[in-house]
Amino acid sequence: MKKFWLFIFSTFIALGIAYFSKKSPGSYADNKPNWKTFEKHSNNTIVTHPSTNKELLEARIPTPKRSIAEVKTKPEEKNELNNIPKDRNYQLREDRILFGDLEKRDYQDEQIDLEMVNKVNPNWKEILGNDLLRFQQEDTKVMIKEEFPMIKIQNGKGQYLEQVIITYAFKNGNFSSFHALVDSDSGFVTETWDKTVNEKIKPNRAELTLPEFNNSGIITR
Amino acid sequence: MNLKRNTLLTTTTLALVSLVLSSCVPSAGTSLRSRDSSSLTGSNSSVGIYQGKILADNPIIRSKNEELSDSFDLNQLTTVVTITSNSFLKGNASCYGLEFCFEVRENQDAPSALQTTTGKWGYSVLTPEFLQVNTFYHLNKVTDMFYNNLGKSFSLAYSGLIPSYKTSLPKSFNPFSGMYNTETNPLIAYANCDVPNNAYFDRANQTLCFGYVAGHDGVKWAQDSTIVYHESGHFFQKLQLNIRNPLAGPRVDVGNNYYDEAGSLGEGLSDYYSYFVNGRPHFGEWAAGRFLYSSRPMTEDDPLHISGVSSDPDQRLSYPQYINYNPNFPTLPQEDVHTAGMIVSHYLVALTNDLQEKCLMTQTDASSYVIHLLTETLAEYGDLNSNGIQSVTTNNRINLSPAHSLEWFRTVNPINYRTFMQTFAKNLLLNLGSPTLNRCNGGIYSKDQIESLIDQYGLLLFRSYNENRSLAVPNTATANTVVTATNRKKSVLISKSLIILDPTTSASSAYVIDDRAKILTGLTSLQSSGLMTSPISSQTPSDLGFNNNNGKISPGEVVAIALNLYNNSNSPMGGVQVLANDWNHADASGKPCRFPTTMSNDSWPLDSEGGVPCSTTSASAATDFAPVCFIQSNEANSTKWVSQKDFATKMALDSSLCLNPSDPKDCFIRALKGADQSNYSKIDSKSTWGKTLANPTTGKAPNLDFGNVLLFEVSKQIPPGTVVDCRLRVRFTNCEECYHDSDAARANYDYKDSDFNGPRPFKIIHLQIPIID
Fold first, then answer.
1. Whether domain B254-382+416-491 has CATH 1.10.390.10
2. Would you call A83 helix, strand, or coil by DSSP?
3. Residue A2 has what pLDDT?
4. Is residue A21 part of a domain?
5. Domain count, chain A
6. CA–CA gap between residue B659 and residue B540 (Å, rounded)
7. What is the pLDDT of residue B498?
8. Is A16 within the bounds of a domain?
């Protein structure tokens, strides 16, 4: 009888542990440290923290555990750097993916000088997060995920860039995502792609009424 | 002690076992019903192992009732089919490195795909589980077809390892038998999304989302298989466009948040994916069509069309006449990518029919061939390494150069109806028109047949097939095939000189909008949708406090400017685009170029006004990209147009006070990158855009959208009274001189990519802006 109660008791404890361990939302950062949330509380206050599971779910960003588990990871088929996919042989320099005008020289050879037009600012992500929220309304959030560090070669010079995913989550429940390249120094977006495609029926057009007349003094020719 | 140890041991063991078990079984989301089939309705009793119930087509088609009520019991329309032998709704194993290419979840709260514990997938239509199973079935179907087609593409493009023609498909793309290294993460489809009147594809996070119809909450977009195919079509286009691009690094997409022709083509191609699967030339009859009046036909014989539209060669849905035509509201012109995309979907269906007739293909084979041609076309266009096709070693053939390719693809020379049809036609010619391949029932689908059908759609707007693009040289091995001019019967090319500013007496030639709230709305929208790729200066306050809504341009403002363009020809113009991006119109020192009259219509500025003669339009050095605006400088004896950098020097303004402190070249005024182009779908003959799109009943012009305006940022440092000249470039899709190089040496070939960095392909229009305090 004592053993029975012991079993019941321990089962409840075990179930309790299991339940609460599943219920606890936890931080997404636990398994996806690259996501970071910036939240605009007021024009002067933008707070930042590792993105939580709840925030990412609200933005309909897939939970990572399942996706990661599904990838048939073969270490020998991945580059060492940040899980760069092995769809081709990427050229690397300073542990960054090279792209742009790569034909002229072997920029992978770090013995060869490469003039850089910028430097890497460790606070680039904070600058980016603040810039992305600068004009947005209060309570707008932006979540940034680091993907790959890059170097773009143009006119024989290099530019440090960071490839990221940017997701906006608005107070009204809407959200928007895209990929971007960000200057590693200034923290500003330089290129974007992978913008969301909507089938929205009758989307609202902007309220830019054609003025009756032009009093701007502009002369056209 | 033993008891204590045993208790501890037992508790720990059970806890561990529970934890292990709970981690094996996916955790519950907000709805337990979404997780485990054991708690579901009795529908499973009527299906066998691995089977489930689905709507084989949308409820309108299944019921044969165009006015089907939202209260109708859709269970009566379901079919039992094999779903999957997997225990989760995950499908297609064609994606290299991934166990499955996609999975289906109820919504974002569901941590994983739906699971069955019985091996059965039978659910009532009213359950969220049904939506997931229905989405899975159709997504799996179209995905299987797409990847199978990709395999066929390789067998069409290659004979062993030898290309059968100049293909865009890289050999390395198919290194693993039947598997494609296309994605790093699986596609995730949310079948029961909480978004009203919408479905979407989030390209960055790789998710599809199927919402509901507001006011008819039981009507779900996922109940309509054509919508599943259409949204999947956007995903496949992403793959097709990026076949030649690495998985890591910049990639391309088509369309933006506002109207443009690339986006219209994307929608039309997605509609065709629905036809590709079900062979039925109509999209979205249920959720979109029945309740939102937004279904779309893909053939002129569809009864939804107005009476003047038919498959008669003279009554096709031709460009640009029907670019604003919505068959659901045929009298109300509409500027929208979905309806504008109908022209290409109609063409592709007509081509499919023509291939069946002329090449004796089955509909399945013909549509499969069309998808192959789309893959070739999009893969070529999307190449950011600037090759576009195999066997080209110099990467300057397309999209200018690897360093500038994204800018060229997106802004400078984007896909539009003309350029898309030209490349598609080239691939058609290389495949079914090839006398060496003889793929049209042992013969060829002739060049005349190709050109004739394209012309019926008003889209024979090119003079050559542009096989060699920027590398083409007439009368050499890299010559282009020329279009037979007599095949151009319906397609109308208009001189660029006929796009002018509204000549009507008292009409405005440009509009300025500087309302603070409206501009702020535009900025936030452009930025959050990923369109804006330059920062706003730190000197511009985040509340746009300098914007004063007086309709004038003042220091410190961010303003929207729209040109009041007028079509002075006798035919409609389509795809009008105004560019305010940086281009090669200044010499290396920044002085404004005066081009010869053979290059530019503006003959500006004179030497006495500060101009210097220029004739090159190279596009490589940093000095080849000058800001669109110059500034008038009052000199001792004259006024001259000078660069902003020179004006700052003259003012002794420290560069730290420029809009961009690290680059004074656009110190005082700049078009915001991403908002430096405006698009207008169509301008009718002898009309303006506003009149073309005006409500015919009220006569009222539509509001401008942010895709119709250019956004300029003005420095608060610019002195009032200063005059700025912004040299805008204007073109349109059915333009005679905007794409063909009339230079005799180029024999009406297309301009080279670098030419688009100069004035020749454009009508130059100047905005002379007084800065008023």
1. yes
2. coil
3. 58
4. no
5. 1
6. 9
7. 98
8. no
In a domain, A51, yes or no: yes
Q: What SS3 class is residue A220? A: strand
**Total residue count of chain B as it appears in this document:** 773
Q: Are B253 and B206 in contact (CB under 8 A)?
A: no
Q: Is the pLDDT of residue B341 over 60?
A: yes
**Reduced DSSP (H G I as helix, E B as strand, rest coil) percent helix, strand, coil of chain B, to 5:** 35, 20, 50
Nearest CB to B529 within list A195, A201, A221 = A195
Which of A124, A201, A207, A215 is the best mutation test for B, with the most CBs of B within 10 A? A201
Is A215's pLDDT higher than 80? no
Strand partners, B561: B512, B710
Alpha helix ranges (H) inside B279-318? 291-292
The Cα–Cα gap between B4 and B716 comes to: 78
Among A97-106, B143-152, B574-583, which is the least confidently predicted range? A97-106
Least confident residue range of A12-16, A140-144, B490-494: A12-16
Query: CA-to-CA distance for A85 and A46, rounded, in angstroms?
Result: 34
Please give the single-letter amino acid code of residue A150: M
CA distance B460 to B420: 11
CB count within 10 Å of CB B651 equals 17
In this structure, chain A runs to a length of 221
3-class DSSP assignment, residue B432:
coil
Give the single-character DSSP code of B152: H
Rg (CA), chain B: 29
Name, in order, each residue with C-beta under 8 angstroms of B471's C-beta and a sequence gap of 6 or more.
Answer: B392, B394, B396, B397, B478
Q: Write out the two tokens for A214.
A: 């032009």
Let me know: does B180 contact B174? Beta carbons within 8 Å.
yes
CB contact under 8 Å between B530 and A178, yes or no, is: yes
Confidence at residue A25, expressed as pLDDT on a 0 to 100 scale: 33
Domain boundaries, chain B: 32-216, 254-382+416-491, 496-770
Nearest to B739 by CA among B707, B719, B761, B717: B761
Closest residue in A to B509 (Cα–Cα)? A220
Side chain identity, residue B626: A
Q: What angle do CA B422, B427, B430 make, to 5 degrees?
A: 125
Phi, psi (deg, nearest 5) at residue B558: -110, 125
Structure tokens at B235: 């995903």
User: Using an 8 Å Cβ cutoff, are B418 and B462 in contact?
Assistant: yes
| Record: contact B533-A163, CB cut-off 8 A | no
The answer to whether residues B176 and B96 touch, using CB atoms and an 8 Å cutoff, is yes
- The residue range of the domain holding A59 is 26-193
Yes or no: say if B402 and A100 are a contact pair by the CB < 8 Å rule: yes
From CA B527, how far away is CA B675, in angstroms rounded?
A: 10
The residue whose two tokens read 């405005």 is B508
Smallest CA–CA distance, residue B485 to chain A, in Å, is 34
| Confidence band, pLDDT 50/70/90 cuts, at residue A9 | low
Amino acid at B717: Q
Q: For tokens 């029945």, what's the residue?
A: B290
Across the interface, of A61, A65, A208, the residue whose CB is closest to B705 is A208
Pick from B469, B453, B408: nearest CA to B317 = B453
B473: closest CA of chain A, how far (Å): 23
Tokens (6 digits) for B178: 């039947």
What is the value of pTM for the model shown?
A: 0.91
CB B345 within 8 A of CB B272: yes
Rounded Cα distance, A133 and B100, in Å: 36
Tokens of A80: 């060492």
pLDDT tens-digit readout, B394-410? 778 999 999 999 999 99
Q: Quick check: B51 and B57 in contact, CB under 8 A?
A: no
Flag whether pLDDT at A139 surpasses 50. Answer: yes
ipTM above 0.85, yes or no: yes
Is A219 part of a structural domain of the chain? no
Q: What is d(CA B184, CA B667) in angstroms, rounded to the nearest whole number?
A: 42
Over residues B513-523, the pLDDT tens digits come to: 999 999 999 99
